[in-house]
Amino acid sequence: MSLRLHAHPFLKTVYEQVTLGAQQQTKKLIWVDDQPTQEDLDHILREGSSDSEFDSNNLRKEVLRDLQANRAKLVTKNSKIAKVLAIVYPDQEARIPWDTFAKVFAAFGPSHGKPWRFVWFANKRPRELPAPMEKPVAGHMNGGYTYPCDPSAVVVYREEEVARVLVHELLHAACTDAKGDMIELVEAKTETWAEIFLIAVLSAGKPRLFTQLWKTQAQWIADQEYLLMNEHGVQAPTDYAWRYTLGRRFVLKGFGIDLPGPSADPRANIAGSMRFTSPAICE
């Protein structure tokens, strides 16, 4: 697929706006070591121990138990606009993507009202496609949540794709959901925006890199869509996976953006993954 940034006004606009915001604010956003407040700890306990239809594998509870048993640790850092409380395992601490977190929060800028607060239960379980002809459900794909218009309650509970999920949840927390849309369309729009937004952040002011990353991501979307439709029976908004996967094509089409056809071997490209972004984009 040949894609030139200037040929897609929507992509060009998002790239310019996100890049401008990130470049202006990133140098000002410096992480400093911090300590959790009692309210932070209560929040972690509440969110980590609650039941959730989205976290059906109890990934948060698993990490919380490991924190309580000293098998995981809480790393807390703060900036002027955001606080991160990361519950990680010893081998994960060195790879916490602080630079990417800074770029993401810088691109969003200060929240209105309460500061951003991000709790990360860094469970190592990856997203995986179910067995052939089985439709994916929340446990195969979800990795975070927040409460609409509440910047203090952003939660991510997988290590995989933490930056993409963070952007997705920040969009919800920033009140971007259209009130009249059905939930399936809300999530399809949010996920599409999150992927483009993240690629703009990661391109670091380099339009050619943005184009390259988007081309890679567009192929991932097309290949994953092909497998979901033909091997897992995902077809319509009534299928749960549609809102995060097939729905992206619907949203992109509304912006005049076409996706490529599937590659020669979609199965080999996707390699059983249910992650939404190509691993070539961001871990």
Task: Give keywords.
9% strand, six-stranded mixed beta sheet, 6 strands, 283 residues, alpha/beta
What can you tell me about this protein's structure?
- The protein has 283 residues and is an alpha/beta fold.
- It has a domain at 10-205.
- The chain is 45% helix and 9% strand.
- Strands 1-2-3-4-6-5 form a six-stranded mixed β-sheet, sandwiched between helices.
- Helix 4 links the parallel strand 3 (82-88) and strand 4.
- The longest helix has 25 residues, at 207-231.
- The protein starts with 8 loop residues before the first helix and ends in a 13-residue tail after the last helix.
- The model has no long low-confidence stretch (mean pLDDT 93).
The CA-CA distance between the termini, in Å, is 24 Å
**Strand order in space, largest sheet:** 1-2-3-4-6-5
Number of strands: 6
Mean pLDDT metric = 93
Structural class: alpha/beta
The major beta sheet can be summarized as: 6 strands, mixed
Spell out the helices and strands N to C: HEHHEEHEHEEHHHHH
Spans of at least 5 consecutive residues whose pLDDT stays below 50 are: none
H/I helix tally: 10
Helix content: 40-55%
* Radius of gyration, CA atoms, in whole angstroms: 18 Å
Percentage of residues in strands:
5-15%
So what's the overall shape?
globular
